[in-house]
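Q: Please design a sequence for this.
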């Protein structure tokens, strides 16, 4: 083998002759290196794309605004359900034969009291469910996301059917919770790797 041949693939790098000086002569520009261009540095504070925290591309480092709003709305639902629990409990305790509505006018006093207690218990259970979901939003996975989606949809449906006038805030908040959690940034938040 001869290192004197500039086309020799086993020769010195860049086709240099042994003993010759490397680099361009003075006055000539340096040629760029071969291969792929170097990637730009990763910004750990970038809101979207590569460089998120939690160890991977496409995962948010902090909770997106829509998910924060959904969590706040879940806490508002907790408050409204607790208010409803108190109102129906007081109504059940104070029931002395007064009818709760025209629909229930044919029912006896004990049935009215039982319905009021049932609604109070259901409202308390719904408040507890909303509180658990609101607490799990920060650290929960995709199961919390799906459960919150279903919770928002069922809350919206319940806001329509039995409690039409009083349920309009629940309808609006249930729809908003489902939308904010179901968006792509919500999916990225709940599907992020835990580290």
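A: Design:
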């Amino acid at each position: 083998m001869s290192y004197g041949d500039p086309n020799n693939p086993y020769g010195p790098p860049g086709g240099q002759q042994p003993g010759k000086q490397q680099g361009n002569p003075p006055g000539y520009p340096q040629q760029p290196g071969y291969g792929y261009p170097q990637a730009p540095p990763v910004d750990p504070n970038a809101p979207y794309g590569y460089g998120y925290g939690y160890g991977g591309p496409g995962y948010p480092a902090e909770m997106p605004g829509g998910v924060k709003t959904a969590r706040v709305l879940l806490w508002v639902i907790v408050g409204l359900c607790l208010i409803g629990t108190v109102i129906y409990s007081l109504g059940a305790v104070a029931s002395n034969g007064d009818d709760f509505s025209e629909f229930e006018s044919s029912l006896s006093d004990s049935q009215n009291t039982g319905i009021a207690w049932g609604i109070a218990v259901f409202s308390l259970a719904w408040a507890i469910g909303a509180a658990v979901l609101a607490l799990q939003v920060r650290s929960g996975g995709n199961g919390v996301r799906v459960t919150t989606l279903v919770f928002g949809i069922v809350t919206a449906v319940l806001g329509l059917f039995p409690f039409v006038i009083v349920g309009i805030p629940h309808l609006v908040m249930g729809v908003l919770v489902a939308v904010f959690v179901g968006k792509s940034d919500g999916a990225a938040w709940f599907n992020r790797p835990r580290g």
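Q: Thanks. Anything notable?
A: Residues 65-190 form one domain. The helical segments are 65-93, 109-136, 142-160, 168-182, 184-190.
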